[in-house]
Every structure is written in C-alpha cells, then in structure tokens.
Design brief:
Layout: E1 2-5, H1 21-29, E2 33-37, H2 46-51, E3 55-57, E4 65-67, E5 82-85, H3 97-105, E6 109-112, H4 128-149, H5 168-185, E7 194-199, H6 203-212, E8 217-219, H7 225-228, E9 238-243, H8 245-248, E10 249-251, H9 259-264, E11 269-271, E12 282-285, H10 299-305, E13 315-318, E14 340-344, E15 349-352, E16 359-362, H11 372-392, H12 406-410, E17 412-415, E18 418-419, H13 427-436
Helix pairs in contact: 4-6
C-alpha cells in the first residue's frame, strides 16, 4: 500500500501536516512507499520530506491511502481510495455534502479523525489542546487591542497573535511576563474583577487553561459568581470560571439535571447561561455544540443587553466556531490574519474588523495552524501507529471482517462508498440535499 500525504489547500494560512518527515522516515524504513504532495507553505519543506525518503509529487492519484487534515476538493477524490481527514460531515454540514457525495460516487473509504474514539467515546486523535492554546492567546490579544483603542492601558496589549510566535515556548514566556506585570502593577480599576469564563472541560478547554495558568489565576465556581461580585476582588489576579453542562442548562420541567438524559434528550433542556454573562469580562466557548443542544449565547440576549451599564463582556473567543451555533452571533468564520468579527447589536450585522462598534468575536476555525510545528509534531506522533495499521490491512475484505484497530473502525464513515452501520443516519443528509436540488 502506498501512503499519500496531502498539501492542505482549503486555507492559504494552513501550514499543518498530518505526518511529519521524521515519521515518514520510519514508514519508509518499514518498506512502505510514501508520496508527498508538493507544498510551498507547509511548516516542513518538500526537501525535508525527500531526505526522509518520500517521493514529492503533484498528484496523489497513485496513492492507496490519502491522509490530510482539512476537507478535500471534489476533483482530488479518486476512485477506490482510503481517505483520512477531518471531513466535517457528521452533523450534515451543508457545505460539505457535495464532497460527501463525491466520496460515495468514487467508492471511497472515509475515516474521520473526529470519530476515532476509545471504548468510552473519548477522542484519540486531535489538535484540541493547540486550538485552546492559540484561542486563548488570540482572544486576549483581541481584548487588549480593543481596550487600548478605548483608551484603557492594559497588560494584554503586549501580546501578539499566536501565529506571530515561533513556538509554544515563546508564547509561554510572553504570558509569564504579562503574569508578572499583573502581580506587580495590577489591572486597571475599570477591569476589576477580571473574570474569564470557559465552557467545557475537554481537550480544547484544557488547552485554554494550560496557557491561562501562566497568569496569576484564581478559580471560582459558577454558583459563586453572584456572591463573588460582593467581595472586594484583587487587582493582582485574574479569575476563571469553568462551566460544565449542569451549569449551562436546566430541565424545562424543573426536574433534576442528569447528564446522560441531557445527551439523550437535549430537547427537554433549555439554556440558563445568560445568568452568568453579566459577570464575565471574557467568554471562551470551548465546548462541543450541535444543533440539538441549547445555545450558550443567544443573539437576542446580546441585542437586549448591549449598552447597559452592567454589560461587562469585552469579547468572545469562539473556539468551537459553529456558524450561528453555540454562540449565535458567530455569523462567519474568520481568517488567521484577520481573526475578529464585530457583531453590532444595533444593526444586527457584522464586519470583519478589530475596531468597529459592537461586540468582538474571535472566530478562527483553524486555530491549531497558528502553532504548526508543535501541533503537527504532536498530531503525527499519535497518528503514526494507526497509519501503520492501515498500511498493513487487507482492504479486499468486507467491512465486518476488516482487521484494523477498533478505534479506526469506529471512525470509518464510508467503506467503499457505502455508509457503515454507525453512520447509516447520514443517508438523510444526502437525500435531503438531492430533494432540494
């Protein structure tokens, strides 16, 4: 079996790669042929891959297994291939239905990283931590610049965007410097208490908190937010609040919250997150969201409360970045170089800008690419054993007899152009799309 590694083409700023040269070399030494699609913007050069033993090509049509990160153009979906990438199709995302239909037409096998999980449903292959790392940095950068624009000097103005640092170590050094500044000089009086809310407790949230803890942080519980506002806060600390599902929603019938019931019957629950928003300076949305779940921030709340004296929210970092999703005012995703959209509650419109009137939202949906070396190296290291298993598998067998690791089977959406049993529900996305046409 030949392995093909894609050049990422969806975004001009995408520099990540799924398999780094060091790991390509390990595969080559095992006797596998590796084809690498030429790219002049990838964090690792074509020359580095050549030295590792790969063959540099323009097309991956001769590869048997094709590995990438983001979605693949329809014209690069070849017949009878095995594809491994983030397809963003499991929610029926409309913009990716044509790609899904082409995969079916070409009798392709699709394995989605997002669905490669263990026995407990925990994701095994992810960039989440790096999305959280970069998302926090960029959100605080956004807030810092906005405050200076309004005439409020603040330590976050020293931050650069995540991609402007050469690696994670330099980000940590910069955050530590800001942390010492806050400890020594404190925050402006108008920002005290400075409270950052974080939704979720998964990999993305962990990545946010990992970097946040290089600042002088104290944690408070969601239920203590109202009481906390009555206690004289410290100007030399930042306060974080981590919200779990039980904090963000309640049963419509007034019954007791039950996590399993919430996952099974989200229609029986409604959002109560609005009660926390008056106390937050910054919100980082780092939790998974689907259309069946209540929203975290509703557009109507922002419209009704914008401009009130007690509205403290300076900005939102929407790392989850679902358009009109968990954060309803996320009207579009943004680019790495222009990462901020401003939602104007007065006009109910938005603009890609940093200094316009309204509430700023960081809405970059490829945040890990801002740390391309760190993110690619980590991702490749956890992916490598699965690649070896894919290359050794007998793909002539029926799906139920296919001998690949169980997590890979769980992540297989299509097998030779047909939905596997766990993903039969996705037929509705294809059928609905065809009816509309």
């Amino acid at each position: 079996m030949n392995l093909g590694i894609r050049a990422e083409t969806k975004y001009p700023s995408e520099k990540r790669v799924a398999v780094i040269p060091e790991h390509v070399n390990k595969l080559v030494k095992q006797g596998f042929k590796v084809l690498v699609q030429s790219s002049n913007k990838r964090i690792f050069t074509d020359e580095e891959y050549e030295k590792a033993g790969a063959k540099i090509v323009n097309s991956l049509e001769q590869a048997d297994i094709i590995i990438g990160i983001k979605e693949i153009p329809e014209e690069e979906i070849y017949a009878d291939k095995v594809y491994l990438f983030f397809s963003h199709t499991i929610k029926g995302q409309k913009h990716n239905i044509p790609m899904l239909k082409q995969l079916i037409k070409q009798r392709a096998t699709l394995i989605d990283y997002e669905k490669i999980v263990d026995d407990f449903g925990k994701r095994l292959i992810f960039f989440g931590n790096y999305a959280g790392n970069a998302g926090l940095v960029d959100t605080l950068w956004m807030v810092g610049k906005r405050l200076v624009y309004k005439g409020i000097a603040n330590p976050f103005d020293k931050l650069k965007r995540a991609f402007e640092y050469s690696n994670l170590d330099n980000i940590i050094a910069s955050m530590s410097e800001i942390g010492f500044d806050i400890l020594k000089n404190g925050l402006p009086e108008s920002l005290i208490p400075f409270i950052i809310g974080i939704t979720g407790y998964g990999n993305v949230s962990k990545g946010v908190q990992e970097i946040l803890h290089f600042l002088p942080v104290k944690e408070i519980l969601p239920e203590d937010l109202k009481r906390f506002s009555d206690i004289p806060p410290s100007p030399h600390h930042i306060y974080k609040v981590v919200f779990k599902e039980k904090d963000m929603v309640k049963r419509r019938d007034g019954g007791k919250f039950d996590l399993n019931d919430y996952y099974l019957h989200p229609e029986n629950y409604e959002s109560i997150f609005y009660q926390y928003l008056p106390y937050l300076n910054v919100l980082i949305h780092a939790s998974y969201w689907d259309q069946k779940y209540p929203r975290v921030v509703e557009e109507k709340y922002i419209i009704d409360n914008w401009g009130k004296p007690d509205f403290r929210l300076l900005g939102i970092g929407d790392i989850s970045c679902d358009i009109n999703g968990g954060v309803e005012i996320t009207k579009t995703s943004t680019e790495v170089e222009n990462p901020v959209l401003i939602y104007n509650p007065a006009t109910r419109d938005y603009i890609i800008d940093l200094y316009s009137e309204g509430l700023p939202v960081l809405a970059v949906d490829i945040l890990p690419t801002e740390l391309p070396m760190d993110a690619s190296t980590y991702f490749s290291s956890i992916l490598l054993p699965y690649i070896e298993a894919l290359l050794k598998a007998n793909w002539k067998k029926n799906f139920n007899k296919l001998e690949i690791p169980l997590p890979l089977k769980r992540g297989t959406i299509l097998y030779k152009g047909k939905f596997t049993p766990d993903y039969e529900y996705m037929k509705q996305f294809i059928n609905n799309n065809q009816k509309k046409q």
